[in-house]
């Protein structure tokens, strides 16, 4: 889980069991960038802006393995922990601080709202 | 948070203060006679026995006992007497007043008193809250029925034992540590136990997919029924529990229901007393709450944002607390925890962070025949996490290395084999290199257990000219079966040949040393039934594979176990998961099937309506003789499909590694050159083959005469009709490398054309590698081989054909219809939507 100790106001996104392991779900943000929330097969949760650094492919639709998602459009591998493209590819997508508390998912509000569409 | 030192300097005096009688000593009152409360007192006594007068309130009518040993008590391995930590004599000898069976009901911080449920009020100088946790009860109907219990204290165990004595069925809700220990105990006590777990893997917070799968398999082997991904709807019964009903309607009869879904810090008392409470009672590094005279310890506290549910952190907390109360102030810094399951014969261990990720390397060892899975996660030469199944002897060693942050680079290659082996390497004087360890093996040391091949035999085989792994496998059979000795054989190759080792055939992906063909063979030979099982038995070097091997394994299993294998959606590429083609802007295109390229007004109207209703920006005729609707959002897909279904149309699988289209031409019905009914045969062929999953996409065409308007000779399977019958063509490709078909044979009847088609597809399905189209496959195996299997071997052809039709009996269900009816709705829905106030206003 990324930066669970970040300080600020947290948005309650709902219970963890809404996302099965290996799956991702999306969270559109009015006036901002859509966010993808991932649940890995290792039972970790991560949140990223739902746009591949390559050509903005929807990362939520990729195959998740380890803490990596393979983009559905041209198969770049993106680290869920850092948002960086792995291997020979270069680029980075913003990550959103996420924490779990009492079975619910929380995202750092300022990070959610801060990612305005370019 | 403000830091208090927990001591009142005026009242406490200096070092030379003499304590004349119990009355003038400070009075420490402890609420909670459990593991943390009593341990804190023990630590305090060890430092300064006479300093405080101690009174302990306990809600339970017992002396302090070892709560974690309730599982062995339930399992019949221990009695209550065996798990008592402090007996009555301990309290008496240390002058501690124990008020057992009397819960504290209120704290008055102004008056500095506590009052018990029965009305007894006691004053304190220092108060220690150690109330532990409350079991979480899921709010379903029937949760209060007699026979529904949790698993927290001795009273619960007594109730379980009484229920078990009556026999019958039990349901345990929750497949975590507690739930599985309860299930184990009840099974040993003779009950028929079903475990209901919400998540797809057991103990998902401690284990990864691979270890969770092994655990589930082992428990099922012991007669438990394990239902994962199962959501409880209600507990039913008339006056007492009679069973549990799941959200999918399944009913499981039970006379006992144990709820073990989790725990919550027990904070009610602290909250009512106005103390600072988050998830737990907030404490500083010295276990002092927001009131300097009130301390808290154990599972009820929240320290630095963390709450704990295991005993190891409590010991650390109790030390810091006692240090603080006796002026030492070491301070608690948080704990790293490890977990072990206490089920006899099942060794499960996990520690730290095993989520992997950037800069992390997984070292994985899988020994299928011993049922062992070990995974150590390393970052910057330090262990950050570990999951062990089947052999946990080295758990504590890894955990020590992890906690100390020790640099493991020197023992990295041997790390996964455990402490003994790593030490052996270290003592061998520079023999840390695993190569040296292998070199040191004697000639008769066994390398391959499956085929009984010794080191001497492998070396002789290499020396005889077998310079690659594959050659060794072929000649002396070492590493040709389960493959667990592959690493050893490779080391021997390197030792014997140096740089002259020939690289073997390409492996399926970087996660395995097996080729596609090896994997397919072993899936069948070993009767493998799931992806985690395949990864385990075939020694995958990554915990859950990658985007290359997951889809391949999913296909191979699907092909090997028609009707039986449960498709793993997450191992499918987005298009096959969404049953539509993803476009560059993240929308989807939708292609309904048009049998043999035929359509009618009803279908065309439905398509036109969909285009208008969902504002599809484009609709186009494809090269596959049907219509493609573009720009549909994932949320709208189920509704679009429902509309198309209503007009009788099903998925065209334009997105799948599956049968795509069957192109036809006009044929003898209308065309002046047509020799046979090519349109009719095309429709029949598509009806027979649609819905089938393949190694790659598969295209068919039927042309009515050699003019070949349907381009049958660049298709995977093509039929060219002639006066005397049907020419069957295979292995064509119109794509990147254009390839004209090979002529397979000529047949006389439509039925034969269909039968050969089915047999050919099945041969391709069973033998081609994932993502290999028919053209490269036939170039690899040769068209003569295909002819021999399909044309010359009549019985073989018939067997292939019937295997194909059997498999089709399961796959010809329209995937759109299921989704349109609401199946897997979450794939199409957003989790939620964020509407910040400023943009809504
Ligand atoms: C829609 C269509 C173009 C059209 O508008 O006509 C099309 C569209 C795509 N083709 Fe095609 N192909 C279409 C007919 C063809 C044909 C012609 C045919 O089938 O007769 C060919 C050559 C014949 C062949 O396959 O041998 C063809 C050879 C390819 C190839 C190269 C395959 C090869 O083995 O080399 C690819 C790439 C791939 O599959 O890896 C491809 C891949 C694609 C993909 C799936 C690219 C992708 O991965 O996104 C395109 C999907 C667009 C979409 O979202 O729908 N398409 N594609 C045709 C759909 C037919 C249908 O009704 O299902
Ligand atoms: C079946 C089982 C198996 C476990 N196995 C393991 C294991 O293998 N490894 C591991 O590390 N951990 C294990 N645990 C967890 C471990 O037992 C707890 O972490 C530990 O007991 C917590 O100690 P505690 O003192 O905070 O709480 P507890 O031990 O629960 O003590 C709290 C006490 O306070 C009492 N109390 C509560 N409110 C009041 C009140 N108002 N007035 C007076 N008394 C009150 C309670 O009755 C209880 O006796 C297991 C737990 C269970 C139930
Ligand atoms: S080429 Fe043959 S099958 Fe095609 S339209 Fe002409 S006659 Fe008919
Ligand atoms: S958009 Fe993600 S790989 Fe191209």
From TrEMBL, chain A:
Sorted UniProt keywords: 2Fe-2S, Iron, Iron-sulfur, Metal-binding, Nitrate assimilation, Oxidoreductase
Any single Pfam family the record assigns to this protein: Rieske
Taxonomic superkingdom: Bacteria
InterPro entries in alphabetical order: Rieske-like_NirD (IPR012748), Rieske_2Fe-2S (IPR017941), Rieske_2Fe-2S_sf (IPR036922)
BP GO terms, sorted: nitrate assimilation
Domain Rieske: 19-107
Any GO MF annotation of the entry: metal ion binding
Protein's name in the database: Nitrite reductase
Organism: Sphingobium ummariense RL-3
From TrEMBL, chain B:
Upper lineage: Bacteria, Pseudomonadati, Pseudomonadota, Alphaproteobacteria, Sphingomonadales
One MF term in the entry's GO annotations: flavin adenine dinucleotide binding
Pathway stated in the Swiss-Prot or TrEMBL entry: Nitrogen metabolism; nitrate reduction (assimilation)
UniProt key word ATP-binding: no
Entry's family note: Belongs to the nitrite and sulfite reductase 4Fe-4S domain family.
Domain Nitrite/sulphite reductase 4Fe-4S: 656-795
Record's cofactor remark: Binds 1 siroheme per subunit.
BP terms from Gene Ontology: nitrate assimilation
Organism: Sphingobium ummariense RL-3
CDD domains: NirB_Fer2_BFD-like_2
Nitrite/Sulfite reductase ferredoxin-like domain boundaries: 583-647
Binding site for [4Fe-4S] cluster: 665, 671, 705, 709
NCBIfam families cross-referenced by the UniProt entry: nitri_red_nirB (TIGR02374)
Residues covered by the BFD-like [2Fe-2S]-binding domain: 447-494, 508-557
The entry's keywords: 2Fe-2S, 4Fe-4S, FAD, Flavoprotein, Heme, Iron, Iron-sulfur, Metal-binding, Nitrate assimilation, Oxidoreductase
Cofactor names: [2Fe-2S] cluster; FAD; siroheme; [4Fe-4S] cluster
UniProt keyword annotation of Nucleotide-binding present: no
Residues in NADH-rubredoxin oxidoreductase C-terminal domain copies: 338-405
Residue ranges constituting the FAD/NAD(P)-binding domain according to the UniProt record: 27-301
Residues holding siroheme: 709
Protein's recorded name: Nitrite reductase
């Amino acid at each position: 889980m990324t930066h669970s100790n970040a300080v600020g106001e947290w948005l309650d996104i709902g219970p963890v069991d809404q996302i099965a392991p290996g799956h991702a779900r999306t969270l559109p943000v009015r006036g901002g960038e859509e966010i993808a929330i991932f649940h890995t097969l290792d039972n970790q949760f991560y949140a990223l802006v739902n746009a591949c650094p390559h050509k903005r492919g929807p990362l939520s639709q990729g195959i998740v393995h380890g803490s990596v998602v393979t983009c559905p459009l041209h198969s770049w591998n993106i680290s869920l922990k850092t948002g960086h493209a792995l291997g020979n590819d270069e680029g980075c997508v913003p990550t959103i601080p996420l924490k779990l508390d009492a079975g619910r998912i929380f995202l750092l509000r300022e990070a959610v709202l801060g990612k305005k569409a370019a | 948070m403000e830091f208090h030192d927990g001591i009142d300097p005026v009242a406490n005096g200096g070092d030379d203060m003499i304590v004349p009688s119990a009355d003038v000593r400070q009075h420490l009152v402890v609420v909670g006679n459990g593991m943390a409360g009593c341990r804190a007192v023990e630590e305090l006594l060890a430092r300064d026995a006479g300093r405080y007068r101690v009174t302990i309130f306990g809600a339970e009518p017992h002396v302090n006992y070892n709560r974690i040993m309730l599982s062995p008590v339930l399992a019949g391995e221990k009695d209550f007497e065996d798990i008592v930590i402090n007996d009555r004599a301990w309290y008496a000898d240390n002058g501690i007043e124990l008020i057992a069976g009397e819960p504290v009901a209120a704290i008055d911080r102004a008056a500095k008193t506590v009052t018990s449920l029965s009305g007894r009020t006691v004053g304190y100088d220092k108060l220690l809250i150690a109330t532990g946790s409350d079991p979480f009860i899921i709010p379903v109907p029937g949760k209060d029925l007699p026979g529904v219990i949790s698993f927290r204290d001795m009273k619960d165990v007594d109730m379980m034992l009484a229920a078990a004595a009556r026999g019958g069925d039990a349901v345990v809700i929750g497949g975590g540590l507690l739930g599985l220990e309860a299930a184990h105990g009840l099974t040993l006590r003779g009950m028929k136990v079903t475990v209901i777990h919400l998540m797809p893997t057991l103990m998902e917070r401690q284990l990864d997919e691979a270890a969770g799968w092994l655990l589930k398999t082992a428990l099922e082997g012991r007669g438990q029924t394990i239902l994962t991904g199962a959501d409880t709807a209600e507990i039913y019964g008339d006056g007492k529990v009679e069973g549990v009903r799941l959200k999918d309607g399944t009913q499981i009869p039970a006379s006992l229901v144990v709820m073990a879904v989790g725990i919550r810090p027990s904070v009610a008392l602290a909250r009512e007393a106005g103390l600072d409470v988050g998830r737990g009672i907030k404490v500083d590094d010295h276990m002092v709450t927001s009131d300097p005279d009130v301390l808290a310890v154990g599972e009820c506290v929240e320290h630095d944002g963390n709450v704990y549910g295991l005993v190891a952190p409590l010991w650390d907390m109790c030390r810091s607390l006692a240090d603080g109360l006796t002026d030492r102030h070491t301070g608690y810094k948080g704990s790293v925890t490890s977990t072990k399951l206490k089920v006899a014969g099942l060794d499960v261990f996990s520690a730290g962070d095993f989520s992997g990720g950037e800069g992390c390397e997984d070292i994985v060892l899988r020994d299928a025949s011993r049922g062992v899975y070990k995974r150590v996660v390393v970052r910057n030469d330090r262990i950050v996490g570990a999951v062990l199944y089947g052999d946990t002897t080295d758990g504590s060693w890894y955990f020590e290395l992890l906690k100390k942050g020790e640099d493991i680079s020197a023992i990295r290659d041997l790390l996964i084999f455990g402490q003994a082996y790593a030490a052996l390497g270290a003592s061998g004087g520079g023999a840390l290199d695993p190569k040296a360890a292998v070199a040191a093996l004697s000639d008769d040391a066994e390398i391959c257990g499956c085929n009984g091949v010794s080191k001497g035999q492998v070396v002789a085989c290499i020396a005889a000219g077998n310079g690659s792994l594959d050659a060794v496998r072929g000649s002396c059979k070492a590493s040709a079966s389960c493959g667990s000795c592959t690493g050893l054989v490779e080391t021997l190759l390197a030792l014997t040949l140096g740089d002259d080792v020939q690289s073997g055939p390409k492996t399926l992906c970087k996660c395995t040393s097996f080729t596609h063909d090896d994997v397919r063979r072993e899936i069948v030979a070993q009767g493998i039934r799931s992806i985690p099982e395949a990864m385990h038995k075939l020694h995958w070097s990554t915990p859950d594979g990658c985007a290359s091997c997951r889809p391949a394994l999913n296909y191979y299993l699907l092909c090997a176990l028609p009707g039986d294998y449960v498709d793993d959606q997450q191992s499918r590429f987005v298009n096959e998961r969404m049953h539509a083609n993803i476009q560059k802007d993240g929308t989807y295109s939708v292609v309904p099937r048009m049998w043999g390229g035929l359509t009618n007004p009803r279908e065309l109207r439905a398509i036109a309506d969909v285009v208008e209703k969902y504002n599809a920006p484009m609709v186009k005729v494809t090269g596959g003789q049907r219509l493609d609707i573009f720009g549909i959002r994932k949320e709208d897909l189920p509704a679009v499909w429902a509309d198309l279904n209503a007009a009788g149309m099903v998925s065209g699988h334009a997105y799948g590694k599956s049968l795509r289209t069957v192109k036809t031409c006009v044929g003898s019905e209308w065309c002046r050159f047509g020799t046979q009914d090519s349109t009719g045969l095309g429709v029949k062929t598509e009806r027979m083959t649609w819905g089938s999953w393949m190694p790659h996409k598969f295209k068919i065409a039927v042309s009515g005469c050699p003019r070949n308007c349907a381009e049958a000779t660049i298709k995977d399977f093509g039929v060219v009709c002639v006066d005397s019958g049907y020419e069957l063509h295979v292995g064509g490709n119109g794509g990147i490398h254009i390839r004209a078909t090979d002529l397979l044979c000529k047949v006389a009847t439509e039925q034969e054309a269909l039968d050969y088609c089915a047999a050919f597809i099945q041969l391709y399905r069973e033998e081609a590698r994932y993502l290999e189209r028919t053209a490269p496959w036939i170039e690899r195996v040769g068209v003569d081989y295909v002819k021999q299997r399909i044309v010359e071997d009549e019985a073989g052809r018939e067997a292939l054909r019937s295997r194909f039709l059997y498999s089709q009996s399961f796959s010809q269900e329209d995937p759109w219809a299921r989704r349109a009816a609401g199946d897997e709705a979450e794939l199409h829905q957003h989790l939620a939507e964020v509407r910040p106030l400023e943009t809504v206003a």
